[in-house]
TrEMBL record:
GO MF, one example: carnosine synthase activity
Pfam families to which the protein is assigned, alphabetical: ATPgrasp_N, ATPgrasp_Ter
Stretches for region Disordered: 31-55
Protein name (record): Carnosine synthase 1
Domain of life: Eukaryota
Lineage: Eukaryota, Metazoa, Chordata, Craniata, Vertebrata
SUPFAM superfamilies membership: Glutathione synthetase ATP-binding domain-like (SSF56059)
Keyword Metal-binding belongs to the record: yes
Keyword field contains ATP-binding: yes
């Protein structure tokens, strides 16, 4: 179908006499029978439009012109041609006169001007303290502060949330430099989604500054050229949408800063300067914004990515920036570098002619001509021409070339043909509808992009469709309104949008990784979220999203507007997950790194090969580790700041050793911020040493209580509350065993079958199911003979002795709960499910995370673990609690008063983006870990253990360590190596963990089962399908 011509004429230059004129629109629609309203092509009648609607520059707003475009026969309900530009400024058309846009009012101009005369319906108090002591504002800046405060109140009120309470008369005190402070400077409307989510994930730490005067940059000691950012006044956000206007004395130090840097009026220049060269992480900078808002640069970037479709584009670029020079050719994107703007007529005509006839345009019937460059973002006129009209396109390109400055471009690009969506039955009356897809994608743990939310706009096809002139709705609703309601097709569109949006952010992150700190606007400047605008078109008989624009705030604002439908609880509505949730998690993660960078930590016990991640993580986080270790030749001795060789295995001398180590620390002049351990042998000694050095830690008595398994259970059995439910409800009857005589006594007190285990053991070594008294005596004698001291089996706690206990055997499913506690408060909990253990030795076989339990059962396990820790006096730290879920509720197996072992730290980091190692280090420094209040898993992991006794042959041949590592590096499995050597023995621990990821537990389980069968891990004596059966 041939599209109509739309001829938009340039306005007269400034100062030229005004000459009245009319504009003609030739409407030609083949297939429409001639009539009085649709004359035949041979008798086209010019349609005259009055110029009374012209603005002061002699232009008719393009929005009005679009209303005059063609009427099509209603045989299909479809999306009309999409403009590959979304003018984000307040106007569609802009005069291309000689005036430099840098001089106009706006964030990069000489002055922001006064705010628009806003009308905010509603009622709230205006008697609030918006002045910031010591930072007076001028009349213009004050007007913006009042405007933004009123806008915030209007947004809160329309979302059904309470008015901001003014607490500024009583300044808030805190611990500058020791607390998370997430600071946003920008429009409340743009960032409301982030602010509300931050109030949930980190209550009281998400701050909105309504004026640059509320912030101060101060030079950072020891970091030349960088500055710390101090917050003197802000609106703080809390759960339930509660907000408070607060003053801070002393000022809070920002640990993360995000400023609104988009075009438009407002204090943009000050925001850009505040964001530059900060010591704290920043989520945006003027330098990065200039790159991302350059349409040609980002389009080339996406075209080179290969996974993102972009409109075919011809670009004439005048003295292009270094990032656009050279490089590989991009499919569908032609760059013509110009060293001058004059005398280019022949070149332009040749290039445009070749482009209009090239196959790259596909089925496109129209092209758009526009300008590209930071100056023109959101301010340029858009001109549409039929693909068949060469001369008008050439003339427009030549006219626009005269306006270019260095590093700017003129683009000629295809207008993506619409995806015709057949509407079931008769299409609804009214104009054709246009659809625009907006995707918000966030940077997550490991710099991996994650699609956060998709929001669509639907509007009249005869008018420009922009972010703020269409109502946001979900992808499913929008596609259904355009005639696509089949679930499988909608799922496919969402999958394609997700892949393209995540690939777009990956391309941006790759670009930034190659930039210098100066080019990014600071050492800590990164892009943490991105908005990608798409239009749907058909490519290869498939609905394909084509990326039109990259932006930040507008897509985020659209998502916030959609979420506003559920901001306040209403009956029958289910709250949507916030688009900003992954972004806030990234803010917290980067804040934690910032707070911990350069911290001096004493670590007791290096551990084995399973803890190799510690040294890589410490280097990545910038931690300064000082190691105390019994093995003088340990590989980690070369990876730390200070290595202290000291025998930590003689636990009868822990008090004395703590005093000796404290003297060594002082003698070496170590200025420690914290001291911690993740190694079972060193936990009590660590608590004693922290006590000697005056460093934060759980009390030594609590560590001793948790370390000895029978004492843990017997102590909790006596804790009847209040409060209720009391810890005694989770404890299991048991009896300590130190001699043969104790065995006879225990058999009479503990119901059989029972479980015998080492009092201070680890890794399930020496654990056994016993069914009668003879088995109890036999196992006690075997352990007394085989495991007498540390040398018999290093690393399982034999330095404490080989005393045992007998406890009742509990039927039920086994689970691990990994907790983060600070000041007795539960900050985070992660529940995993274990498969059936290999009896009679209780060796772990399989695991799944996150748990497949119902939410109520999961909550019961978390509360059981939390209350048992509190009952033992464990108030600060990262703890691993093993429980069984019985028909009567959770029952405690044991408490490990340290970070979970095996694969747990790795899995939690992968799925939730939370690093238990970093959390433990923060607690050790007396800092509240920067964790999201409700971490969300980003997938599922299912894994199995490999044992030397069962897999020695395959681990020595086809499934060697090198083979498994190669599969891990390819992303086909997750490998956690737990032992260095393949050494068989009666008391064995797992050699390694092999896991597969998936979007669902079922898919992860199937992948793992197939992989184990292919690698030879599965077998008659090690039935993987049975071990995984618990996870169905």
């Amino acid at each position: 179908m041939v599209q109509p011509a739309v001829h938009c004429f340039l306005p007269p230059p400034p100062g030229a006499p005004h000459i009245p004129f009319t504009k003609h629109f030739h409407l030609h629609v083949p297939g429409v029978q001639p009539s009085s309203s649709n004359p035949a092509p041979s008798s086209l009648v010019p349609r005259t439009v009055s110029t009374q609607g012209q603005d002061s520059r002699g232009l008719i707003p393009l929005g009005d012109l679009m209303c005059l475009l063609l009427t099509l026969p209603k045989t299909h309900h479809f999306c009309p041609p999409q403009l590959s530009l979304d003018p984000l400024g307040p106007e569609w058309d802009c005069p291309l006169g000689s005036k430099d846009l840098e001089e106009e009012e706006g964030p990069w101009g000489g002055g922001s001007g006064l705010p628009p005369p806003g009308f905010f319906p509603g009622s709230w108090s205006h008697e609030v303290g918006l002045d910031c002591k010591g930072s007076p504002e001028g009349a213009e800046a004050r007007a913006w502060t009042v405007y933004y405060y009123s806008l915030l109140q209007s947004c809160l009120q329309q979302a059904g949330l309470p008015e901001t309470q003014d607490r500024s008369q009583v300044p808030r005190t805190g611990c500058p430099g020791a607390e998370v402070t997430l600071c946003i400077l920008g429009s409340p409307c743009t960032f409301l989604s982030v602010l509300l989510e931050g109030g949930v994930q980190s209550p009281g730490n998400m701050l909105l500054c309504l004026s640059p005067a509320w912030l101060t940059k101060v030079p950072a000691p020891g970091q030349p050229g960088e500055a710390a950012l101090l917050v003197s006044k802000a609106v703080s956000f809390h759960p339930g949408g509660l907000t408070f206007l607060d003053d801070f004395v002393p000022p809070r130090r920002a640990t993360y800063f995000l400023a609104g840097l988009g075009l438009g009026p407002g204090p943009g220049r000050e925001a850009a300067e505040l964001a530059r060269d900060l010591t704290c992480p920043t989520g945006a900078s003027a330098e990065l914004a200039r790159l991302l808002e350059d349409r040609l640069l980002t389009r080339r970037l996406l075209a080179q990515q290969g996974d993102v479709a972009v409109p075919a584009t011809l670009a004439f670029t005048y003295k292009p920036p270094a990032l656009l020079r050279g490089g590989d050719a991009s499919p569908g994107l032609r760059l013509v570098e110009l060293n001058g703007k004059e005398g280019q007529e022949t070149l332009v005509k040749e290039e445009v002619g070749a482009f209009l006839h090239s196959e790259a345009l596909g089925d496109a019937l129209q092209v758009a001509v526009k300008l590209s460059g930071w100056r023109w973002r959101g301010r340029q006129a858009l001109r549409l021409y039929p693909r068949t009209e060469l001369d008008p396109v050439v003339d427009t390109v030549l006219a626009l070339l005269e306006k270019l400055e260095e590093e700017e471009s003129v683009l000629v690009e295809a207008v993506c043909p619409p995806a015709r969506l057949p509407f079931p039955g008769s299409p609804p009356p009214g104009p054709e509808l246009a659809l625009r897809i907006c995707a918000v994608v966030c940077r997550t743990q490991g710099d991996r992009p994650l699609l956060s939310k998709v929001v669509c706009g639907v509007g009249r096809g005869d008018r420009p469709l922009r972010h703020q002139n269409s109502l946001p709705r979900t992808l499913e609703v929008a596609l259904a309104q355009c005639g696509l309601g089949e679930a499988s097709q909608v799922t496919d569109v969402r999958r394609r949008v997700k892949a393209a949006a995540e690939a777009a952010l990956a391309a941006v992150l790759a670009l930034e990784a190659g930039l210098s700190a100066e080019q990014r606007g600071g050492r800590q400047a990164r892009t943490d979220f991105l908005g990608v605008d798409f239009v749907l078109t058909v490519a290869g008989r498939a609905l394909t999203p084509v990326a039109l624009e990259l932006n930040g705030g507008l897509c985020l604002e659209a998502c916030g507007a959609l979420e506003g439908l559920w901001a306040a609880p209403r009956p029958g509505l289910v709250a949507e997950e916030a688009a900003a949730a992954p972004l806030v998690e990234t803010m917290l993660r980067r804040s934690a790194r910032y707070l911990m960078e350069g911290k001096q930590l004493l670590l007791l016990g290096a551990g084995g090969v399973s803890k190799k991640f510690v040294w890589e993580a410490a280097r990545d986080y910038g931690l300064k580790l000082h190691l105390v270790e019994s093995d003088p030749n340990h590989f980690a001795s070369q990876l730390v700041q200070t290595f202290i060789h000291f025998d930590v295995t003689e636990h009868q001398r822990d008090e004395e050793n703590a005093r000796l180590l404290a003297e060594l620390v002082r003698a070496r002049g170590l200025q420690l911020d914290g001291c911690f351990s993740y190694w079972d042998d060193c936990l009590v000694l660590t608590a004693l040493l922290c006590q000697e050095l005056g460093l934060p830690c759980s009390p030594p008595a609590a560590m001793r209580l948790a370390k000895q398994k029978s004492r843990t259970q017997l102590h909790l059995l006596c804790r009847h509350g209040p409060p209720w439910p009391a810890p005694s409800l989770y404890a299991v009857p048991c009896c300590p065993l130190e001699s043969e005589a104790d065995v006879d006594k225990a058999v009479r007190q503990v119901p059989l079958p029972g479980v015998m285990k080492l009092e201070f053991g680890a890794g399930a070594v020496g654990v056994r199911l016993v069914e009668d008294a003879p088995q109890c005596h036999e196992h006690f004698s075997r352990i007394a003979r085989d495991l007498q001291g540390e040398a018999d089996h290093p690393g399982i706690g034999l330095g404490w002795g080989n005393a045992m206990l007998l406890m009742e055997f509990i039927e039920g499913t086994e689970h691990d709960v990994d907790l983060v506690l600070f000041g007795g408060r539960l900050l985070a909990a992660f529940v995993s499910d274990n498969g059936p253990t290999r009896l009679p030795g209780f060796t772990e076989t399989a695991a799944c995370m996150p748990t497949g339990l119902a939410p109520e059962q999961e909550a019961q396990l978390v509360q059981a673990a939390f209350r048992c820790c509190l009952g033992c006096g464990l108030l600060d730290g990262v703890f691993n609690v093993e429980l069984k879920l019985t028909g009567a509720g959770p029952r405690l197996i044991e408490i490990n008063p340290r970070m979970g072992g095996f694969y747990l730290r790795d899995w939690i980091l992968e799925l939730y983006g939370v690093d238990l190692l970093l959390a433990a280090a923060m607690v050790a420094c007396g800092l509240r870990p920067a964790l999201p209040a409700h971490p969300r898993a980003r997938g599922h992991l299912v894994g199995v253990m490999c044992l030397v006794s069962q897999h020695l042959q395959v681990l020595s041949s086809t499934t060697s360590r090198e083979t498994l590592q190669a599969l891990h590096d390819q992303g086909l499995l997750r490998l956690n190596l737990l032992e260095e050597a393949l050494v068989p023995g009666e008391y064995e621990e797992p050699y390694c963990s092999v896991a597969c990821a998936g979007p669902s537990p079922a898919e992860a389980r199937l992948r793992l089962l197939g992989l184990c069968q292919g690698l030879g891990i599965d077998g008659p004596h090690y039935p993987i399908a049975y071990f995984l059966s618990h996870f169905k």
